[in-house]
Design brief:
With 549 residues, this protein is mainly alpha-helical. It folds into two domains: 3-162 and 351-544, no CATH class; 195-347, no CATH class. The chain contains 26 helices and no strands. The radius of gyration is 26 Å and the shape is globular.
């Protein structure tokens, strides 16, 4: 069995074990309140986790985990060590029934393995040159912020829900829904602007300027052009992505974007990324990569003639420098050609969150109509109210499952993709084959069926006794938190989020309703997850380095 195959198997094993932890988040309260049986709840959660795949398209969690360590230090042994550490810590916390974060476990594992690899191969060097410190610090900060935000939102939702006046609580929920809609539109605009900024290579230039100040003028120009796109992006809701793209192309200097796209297409044609990965393992591939890199660099001045010479003229100049037979030349043309309007529109469309906004409005609309029907149209009865909240918990659980899928279900997809990229089998995460998401969703579902009940017991009964009303409030608060953080581009722990939400719902009854001793143990697990995973991964990588080079 090849090393890459071992890593894929380990990644799916981690995904299976992740089912013990994270998939249980979606069903803990709905099982503990006996709204659904465990098997029914698993199927319910699995379906809406899968639906999330069609709602969230930016692979935020996968990209974040993959970019925790600088690209040059991501190797197959690093991924292997990170997975071993993550599996060990997840099994340990599962055994004690502690809901730790699988995302944070992976991040800690990769960081620890990447740092150890860098130190062993290049000696002492700044941590900032090995890991993305700003990303790790932001993730670490949200270990505490995510459950706190979930708890606050849960308290607010619970207090509104138990309000005796039907019309007041209906109005308050309507105001919250409208407020969330406007906030999400703001996030939508920010994400679209960020995507366009990346087309101008602002993010890459900011890193390059640190090492080469001569590129400062280029960075300022890119920032200026990206900022000029914002007024047109703000019109998206009214005119759509195609019209926005037209206006940007007509009014903003897109020269650098054109050059960047052509250079990227040239790299793809020559399989630059795959060769770069293979060059680390083979002397022959290292020589081949050097030749390809030299050829690509020599073509950059020709690319800059695109605006004056046109696409055909540029291709002619490239053919003069590196002669190609007619068949090869035709393939080269096809590989390099692009539609700028289509590419700009696609980047803008990526930021669209209309489905999330409409979903939130529908959920809150169902809540409001249920309150009015049960309390004003029908004769108010305790049994009828309890039945209403049991039915509403199906809605809130589905919403949380979608949020869970948007944040967590794609992390193993990112791991497998990163391994295939490091092995030279895949160009980038965008080229990920369909079997990867299918295998990952199947593995996490099987994990939930097999052994997630310890976590369910902790979250559904040990923290506080959860009623259907509190389950609805906690799950809705958790879902709201996950939707907001995903739109902000911050991968958070769904485990931490729902735990905080459950604590918030329980605390509204009385503070003593929360078993704070259990909560303190959870907090220690959250704090220790990243550093312990990093230490374990470092040790595993060090041992592995004696056998695999």
């Amino acid at each position: 069995m090849s090393f890459i195959l071992i890593i894929i198997v380990l990644a799916l094993l981690f995904d299976y074990i992740n089912g013990f932890h994270d998939a249980a988040n979606s069903i803990a309260t709905i099982v503990s309140t006996k709204v659904l049986t465990p098997f029914q709840a698993v199927l319910w959660a699995a379906f809406f986790n899968f639906i999330a795949f069609y709602i969230f398209k930016d692979h935020a969690v996968a990209n974040t985990i993959g970019k925790t360590v600088q690209k040059e230090f991501i190797t197959l042994p690093v991924i292997f060590a990170g997975l071993i550490a993550a599996i060990f810590w997840n099994l340990l916390t599962w055994w004690f029934g502690i809901p730790s974060s699988s995302s944070h476990t992976l991040i800690g594992g990769f960081a620890g393995a990447g740092i150890t690899h860098a130190l062993l191969s290049k000696g002492m060097m700044p941590i900032s040159e090995i890991v993305e410190v700003d990303k790790v610090l932001k993730i670490f900060l949200f270990i505490f912020l995510a459950p706190f935000v979930g708890m606050i939102i849960s308290i607010v939702f619970t207090f509104i829900t138990i309000h005796r006046n039907t019309w007041i609580k209906s109005i308050l929920f309507a105001v919250i829904a409208i407020g969330l809609n406007f906030l999400l539109i703001k996030f939508e605009t920010d994400k679209m602007s960020e995507n366009i900024s990346k087309m101008f290579r602002v993010d890459k230039l900011e890193k390059e300027v640190i090492k080469d100040t001569s590129k400062l003028a280029k960075l300022e120009s890119a920032k200026k052009n990206a900022a000029l796109c914002l007024p047109y992006i703000k019109e998206y809701e009214g005119i759509g992505s195609a019209k926005v793209a037209e206006q940007i192309i007509a009014n903003v200097d897109m020269k650098e974007v054109n050059h960047a796209i052509i250079n990227d297409n040239i790299k793809k044609y020559f399989k630059y990324d795959q060769l770069e990965a293979l060059a680390k393992k083979s002397a022959a591939k290292k020589v081949e990569f050097g030749l390809v890199k030299s050829a690509i660099d020599s073509l950059k001045p020709i690319v800059k003639t695109y605006e004056s010479a046109g696409f055909e003229g540029m291709i002619v100049k490239m053919n003069e420098k590196y002669p190609m037979d007619p068949s090869t030349q035709e393939k080269f043309k096809k590989a390099l050609k692009f539609d700028l309007k289509e590419k700009v529109a696609k980047e803008i469309k990526k930021g669209d969150n209309a489905m999330i906004r409409y979903g939130i409005m529908i959920v809150f609309g169902i809540f409001i109509l249920s309150f009015i029907y049960t309390e004003k149209i029908k004769e108010p009865k305790l049994s009828r109210t309890n039945n209403m909240f049991k039915k509403l918990q199906l809605v809130s659980s589905a919403a949380f499952s979608i949020g869970h899928g948007g944040n967590d279900a794609q992390k193993v997809m990112g791991i497998i993709a990163a391994a295939l990229i490091a092995n030279g089998d895949l160009a980038d995460i965008k080229a990920m084959p369909d079997w990867i998401p299918l295998a990952c969703y199947a593995a996490i579902g099987l994990g939930t069926l097999s052994g997630g009940w310890k976590i369910i017991k902790t979250m559904g009964t040990k923290i506080t006794k959860v009623t259907p009303l509190e389950g609805v409030c906690a799950e809705t608060a958790g879902a709201t938190t996950l939707f907001l953080t995903e739109q902000m581009g911050i991968p958070v722990s769904t485990t931490h989020t729902i735990t905080g939400a459950i604590i918030g719902a329980g605390a509204t009854k009385r503070l003593s309703a929360v078993r704070w001793g259990v909560t303190v143990n959870l907090l220690w697990a959250w704090i220790l997850t990243i550093p312990i995973s990093a230490i374990i991964a470092g040790i595993v990588y060090w041992i592995t380095s004696f056998f695999i080079h």
